[in-house]
Amino acid sequence: MLFSLNSDFMTIPQIQKEKQTILIIGAGSKSAEAIGRVLSMSHHPLRLLWLTSGTSPFIIPNNETIFQGDFTNRKEIKELCLHLQPNVIINTAAYTNVDSAETERQKAWQVNVTGVENLVAVCRLTDAHLIHFSTDYIFDGEHGPYVETDAPHPLGYYGKTKVAGENACIGGNIDYTIIRTNVLYGATKTLKQDFVMWTLKKLAEGKKFSVVNDQFSNPTFIDDLGYLVDKIIRSRAKGIFHAGGADWISRYDFAKMIAQVFREDQNHILPITTNDLHQAAARPMRGGVIPLKAETTFGIKFSGIESGLLAMRRQLQIAGHHEWTI
Ligand SMILES: NC(=O)c1ccc[n+]([C@@H]2O[C@H](COP(=O)([O-])OP(=O)(O)OC[C@H]3O[C@@H](n4cnc5c(N)ncnc54)[C@H](OP(=O)(O)O)[C@@H]3O)[C@@H](O)[C@H]2O)c1
What residue spans of the chain are helical by DSSP H? Predict the structure, then answer.
């Protein structure tokens, strides 16, 4: 069911008090779909509600309620949350275009900082626990992969907005958990773009293409974020947790692994350096996040690239996307 934020949401059935109410912001994000997928299988009595700005396509999960509205509008989000009284708010919404953020600064700040400040204000009013996503782009990439106690030093405007968003949580006098992750990939119903989908499309074109061989990260399978969020909701663990895959590799090697797992021709992928690519925003070259704290705190293990890609391939097959999985 889709409700418009400023009109008909008051008509939804009363929230069942025995269930924890989880409000997921950014229904159309790549990570939200995987988080919802895992949480809806949780043995926990959870009621999942979703908010979308309508900027991205999304598929409404069975029997779940979606609101359309703008979380950067303080009045709108406050009214919604005062009505819903969520126990947990998960913020996956973000302005994530790293290069465009250099020029669309106001828009990036509005979503990544003002929006988060609004959620923090709402959590203060409702005592909700805020689970907020951040990135390894808050670091300069001189000495990655990074641990939670490393000092932020962003290179680009996107990273700066994400640091400011984190600071809004940390200084907000609320219960918060920040999950810093990097290079997300995985299957979604809308086939939302990520590095894997981009590489598969390029490979399908059958022409040679270039991928940087000097940017390093530990790509993260989105379903693993779902398991982490489930653990955080159960334990109400607070603070900062790094969430990243088990393998730390260059984008070029990642692309070659994608070709291998999806049985495409690796020879179409050529190495290129970042300097030759002329991207608008500077990138952390040795990025990535070390997930040891999350793994030891919650007894979980993040997927390595091969197992993550194989799982993604299986999910695409099951969903009938045989164009990518022959
Ligand atoms: N993708 C990565 O590789 C990566 C790496 C490191 C960290 N992260 C962080 O992880 C979180 C989730 O990332 P993701 O990749 O899942 O997000 P995503 O797929 O890029 O989606 C972001 C979502 O934010 C929502 N949004 C709200 N207001 C928006 C606006 N004004 N303009 C554009 N979008 C708006 C949109 O969902 P609705 O249309 O439903 O509102 C959009 O789908 C973010 O905090 C991101 O910074 C991502």
Answer: 30-40, 74-84, 105-109, 115-126, 157-170, 195-205, 222-235, 251-261, 274-277, 292-298, 305-318
Angle at 117 between CA 64 and CA 292, to 5 degrees: 75
For ligand 1, say whether the CB of 96 is within 6 Å of any of its atoms.
Answer: yes
Atom of ligand 1 nearest to the CA of 107: 31
What's the CA gap between 306 and 295, in Å, rounded?
19
Cβ of 21 below 6 Å from ligand 1: no
**Measured in angstroms, how far is the CA atom of residue 157 from the centroid of ligand 1?**
16
Give the side-chain half-sphere CA count within 13 A for 16: 8
- Expressed in angstroms and rounded, the spacing between residue 226 Cα and the centre of ligand 1 is 15
In the sheet that holds 88-91, the strands lie side by side as 2-4, 65-68, 46-52, 20-25, 88-91, 129-135, 176-181, 239-243
The CATH code for residues 2-184+221-244 is 3.40.50.720
DSSP state, residue 192: -
Find residue 10's DSSP bridge partners: none
pLDDT at 13 over 80: no
Residue 82 tokens read as: 């005062």
- Give per-residue pLDDT as tens, 239-274: 999 999 999 999 999 999 999 999 999 999 999 999
* Residue 280: Cβ within 10 Å count: 13
What rounded mean pLDDT belongs to the chain?
Answer: 93
| Complete DSSP assignment for 265-312 | -GGGEEEE-HHHH--SS---SB--B--HHHHHHHT--PPPHHHHHHHH
Contact 282, 137 (CB under 8 A): no
Q: Structural domain boundaries of the chain?
A: 2-184+221-244
Residue closest via CA to ligand 1's atom 15 equals: 30
- Is there a catalytic annotation at residue 158? yes
